[in-house]
Structures are given as structure tokens and as C-alpha cells.
Amino acid sequence: MGEVKLIATPQSFPCVRIEWALRIKGVEYEYIKEDLANKSPLLLQSNPVHKKVPVLLHNDKSIAESLAILEYIDETWKENPLLPLDPYERALARFWAKFIDDKVPTRNTIYMILLLLFSIYLFICSNSCLVIVRSKLTTLWKSTAQFGSTKYIKLYDIASWKQCVLGVWEATMAQGEAKGKAVDATLESLAFLEKQIQGKKYFGGEKIGYLDIVAGWMSHWLNVMEELGEMELLNAERFPSLHEWGQNFIQTLPVKDCIPPRETMIEYFIFAINYKRFKQESRVYLS
């Protein structure tokens, strides 16, 4: 079927989606690791519109965006179909896939929260009563200023990061309310998915399918996001069926072979958060 290459980064769940699909299909591929802080000419040429990973290269043709890539893989390699054969069921799978990407919090949700935190930092700087929180934030922002390289923030900074987040949310009630609303909206979205998975092993039935691959990041990545955002979203008591599905999914071959270590995921998300912040706040300098 021709040469297959995947431009990706290991900690990105849209990229891992594509690895899951290729492995389930038994497709051999070359993995091209991308440095998002220094994007390669190959990535920029292959995805000139969004300049993002993942990008699938098949016979020198490029396909971008994870959902589009998944459908391309399913239509190109017929063995072990991912999407249902029934047109109605296929339409439903596509609907819920878009629902997951639009409604369940992804990395951009964490970006938004922490970018708000930086604006709060500017307020804190003018309030002496919050000097302790200010000191912690200043130290942390400076420690992550080297966004132009692949150097990630060290793990020993995680505790300080979490203390800063807690301190800031306690310092301003309005932001706390905004965060609470975001969490409530996410819980409402997860409740819809809980109903969809009830009585099933996987969204696709007895075998992993398209929707399982789309939602699969929640089985591991969401837990990391919960830690960084000081949130509790997907727990066994509130969403027993969804939680059980996640445990089943993450232990299935070849799924678990593609999941990056938790520590590197934490580093990646913090690096990505600060990389985006420094791009948006490039004219702000800390004294």
C-alpha cells in the first residue's frame, strides 16, 4: 500500500490516536518525531495551514488533523474496521467524536486557565499582602522562560506550580467561579458519554473502534490535566461505566505500548503551556 510516515510528538494525544489506529490495522510506518519549539521544514511543508501535528504521509501525500487521518486510515486499510458499517452508526460515531473534541477539555482548556493566571499575576504584583504568592509566581515564570528549546521544566517545580495555582484561585473569587463553571460544563459532557458507554465494553462494542480511539486519551491524559488544573473530573463514583471503559482501554494491546510515561507528560504540558504564554505575552518582561 506504499510508504507510510507519521510526523508526531509522543506526548500529544491526537498523535497517539494515529499510532493506535495504525497498529490496530497492522500498518507499518516510520515515526518522525517533531520538535514543536523548532518546527521542521517537513512539518511546515506537509501542513502549511495549521502547522501542527499529527500529519500522516502516505505515498508522499499529506493528511492533517487527527479525525480526518483516522477516517483515511480506515478507508485505506480495510482490515479491522474502525467505523461501523451501518451508515447511521457511522454518523453517530462521527457526531460523538466531534462532541469529545469540542466539549471535553483538552490541552487548550489548561492553556486558557493558566493564561488567566498570568493576568492575575500582574494584579498580584501591585498587592503587598500577596507578596508570598507573587514571589512563587515570579520564580516559576522565570524558570520556564526558555521556551525556544526543548528543555522542559524540572519535576521539582511541580509542587511550587500547584501551590501557586491554589494561591491565586484563593486570592480572587471571580476566577474561582469561572473555573467552577468550566468544571461543571465538563462534568455535564462526561455524563453524556457515560450514558453512551453503559452496558458496553467499548464504544465500538466488543472491539476497539473509531470512537474508542478518539476518546482514548481520557483514560490517561485527562488524569494529568486534572492534576495540573487542580480538578477532579473522571472518577469511578460519578462515572463508573466511563471509568471502567478507560481502565479496559488503557490495558489493551497495542494501546498501552504507545502511552508515554506520566512524568514526561507532565513536563510536556507545562512546557507547552508556558511556550504558548510566552508567545502571547512576548512583550512582558519580569523584573
Automatic annotation (TrEMBL):
InterPro entries: Glutathione-S-Trfase_C-like (IPR010987), Glutathione-S-Trfase_C_sf (IPR036282), Glutathione_S-Trfase (IPR040079), Glutathione_S-Trfase_N (IPR004045), GST_C_Tau (IPR045074), Omega/Tau-like (IPR045073), Thioredoxin-like_sf (IPR036249). GO terms for molecular function: glutathione transferase activity. One of its GO terms (biological process) is glutathione metabolic process. It catalyses: RX + glutathione = an S-substituted glutathione + a halide anion + H(+). The chain crosses the membrane at residues 110-133. The keyword Transmembrane applies. Keywords: Membrane, Transferase, Transmembrane, Transmembrane helix. Its EC number is 2.5.1.18. One of its GO terms (cellular component) is cytoplasm. Residues 86-282 form the GST C-terminal domain. It is an enzyme of class 2 (transferase). Residues 2-81 form the GST N-terminal domain. This is glutathione transferase.
